[in-house]
Specification:
Helix content: 10-25%
Distance between the termini: 28 Å
Strand content: 25-35%
Number of domains: 3
CATH superfamily of the largest domain: Glucose Permease (Domain IIA)
Largest sheet: 10 strands, antiparallel
Radius of gyration: 26 Å
CATH topology of the largest domain: Glucose Permease (Domain IIA)
Structural class: alpha+beta
Number of helices: 8
CATH architecture of the largest domain: Distorted Sandwich
Number of strands: 18
Shape: globular
């Protein structure tokens, strides 16, 4: 029988007694990304990062009408996208940002003063926009105080601003010209805008001044009315729920854990691969005002058989995996823990349009927390194959995606780990000292 010395045991006990105090600090301040912060100490913005009238093409009514018509036809057209949506961009895990679909090189300004917190260059290509020397595709994070930051992703930054911020030591003033959106092609000129509180992305709307909220709402409502006519948008509100997980169910966002693609998928960033993530959105969490049309047969309305929406990742292709894309979800058999779903594809991906894919699933609830859930899935061409059970070469295991690790979380983990290591080291030192004393006394 192995005996544990008292000093070492005391150290372990002390660590586990005090660790919950520190773990509680890492609980995110804004679980629903909006509610708590509405009454929280955020820094107010009374200026928008881009001219709203130009963003919504008020100077060119014909272009504005074309975009709204696209929304009515179900083919896009968003100028300001809904925040938090999982079926609105390539981020199927949820777009915790606003996209400005500018369609042209509009000026991007600092809506408030602040200091550079982070800066990264993704592309680095120099070009010229409206007479300005610029650098394509950068990320700029500005600390605006009181634990709040704003972030621009895919910012084509002024070369002069790049020189100021490359060492991450610069203070901006409200209204400073930062650059322009990035032009991916002639029809796609965009930029991402994040508002962060305690390193958590929240819907920027809650941080806007009342006057600016009114202005943004009036502009967005034009899109919303067109989206209602389109009827194909599951998530269409100005601020949507980022967390769509439903406890003790398969609904939510799932990231790859293990399976036949272990050698192809990065364990540090599984979301960057097509089979690395998928989303199941329960229909009860969709907006019936803008999601009522059958996506395969647009002349028909959705029936009660459609219980949700599915999509898998938009990242890198993986050999052996056929991307499914957007699909309407119907229940074939089973319950909340195991069964078979029918996915009817609505995009022309590897499975083709209007194809039935049968997903066999089995959910293991390994604890009280959502992050403990494990989901086993496999896709089949026919119902009979799916009913035959999982196969060793096809089954894939997923864990719930509960958000990205923030810097604040990482700091807490480092603190906890350091304290734990320190306590263990102290216990070990005490044990060694006591052994030495014991030897001396025995002499």
């Amino acid at each position: 029988m192995v005996r544990i010395k008292k000093p070492f045991l005391c150290g372990i006990i002390i660590f586990f007694m005090i660790s919950p105090l520190f773990v509680s600090i890492s609980v995110r301040a804004c679980d629903d990304c909006v509610g708590e912060v509405e009454n929280g100490p955020y820094v107010e913005l009374d200026t928008f990062p881009v001219d709203l009238d130009l963003l919504f093409w008020e100077d060119q009514p014909s272009v504005k009408a074309e975009n709204l018509e696209k929304l009515e036809n179900g083919t896009g057209g968003w100028m300001l996208t809904p925040w938090g949506g999982h079926f609105i961009s390539n981020h199927v895990e949820g777009a915790d940002k606003w996209y400005f679909y500018c369609g042209r090189p509009l000026e991007i300004i600092a809506p408030i003063g602040g200091e550079v917190k982070d800066y990264e260059v993704s592309d680095g290509t120099h070009t010229n926009i409206l007479g300005h020397d610029v650098i394509i595709d950068t990320k700029l994070v500005i600390d605006i105080g009181d634990k709040c930051t704003i972030q621009f992703s895919h910012l084509t930054i002024l070369a002069s601003v790049h020189e100021q911020v490359k060492d991450k030591r610069h203070t901006f003033s409200k209204g400073d010209l930062l650059g322009f959106p990035t032009e991916w092609d002639e029809d796609l000129v965009t930029i991402d805008f994040h508002y962060q509180y305690k390193d958590e992305n929240i819907c920027p709307y809650v941080a806007l001044s009342p006057e600016l909220q009114t202005n943004v709402s009036e502009k967005f409502d034009l899109q919303y009315e067109s989206a209602k006519l389109g009827g194909v948008y599951p998530e269409s509100k100005l601020c949507n729920d980022y967390d769509i997980s439903i406890k003790e169910s398969i609904w939510g966002v799932w990231k790859y854990d293990s399976g036949p693609y272990d050698s192809s998928i990065s364990r540090t960033n599984p979301l960057g691969f097509q089979p690395g993530v998928f989303t199941l959105l329960n229909r009860n969490l969709t907006n019936p005002d803008t999601f009522w049309r059958d996506l395969v047969t647009p002349s028909k309305n959705l029936t009660e058989d459609t219980i949700g929406m599915f999509t898998d990742g938009n990242g890198d292709q993986v050999s052996g995996y056929d991307k499914i894309g957007y699909a309407m979800v119907e229940n074939v058999e089973g319950d909340h823990l195991q069964g078979i779903l029918r996915l009817t594809t609505v995009h022309h991906d590897a499975w083709g349009f209007n194809t039935s894919v049968y997903m066999r699933y089995s959910l293991d609830l390994n604890g009280d927390k959502l992050k403990d859930d494990e989901l086993r899935v496999e896709y089949f061409n026919s119902l009979s194959e799916a009913q035959s059970g999982f196969t060793p070469e096809g089954e894939i295991y997923y864990k719930r995606f509960t958000g990205f690790l923030t810097w604040a979380d990482l700091q807490i983990y480092i603190i906890i780990g350091s304290i734990g290591l320190g306590v263990i080291l102290i216990g070990t030192v005490i044990l060694v000292v006591l052994r030495i004393r014991k030897k001396h006394k025995s002499k």
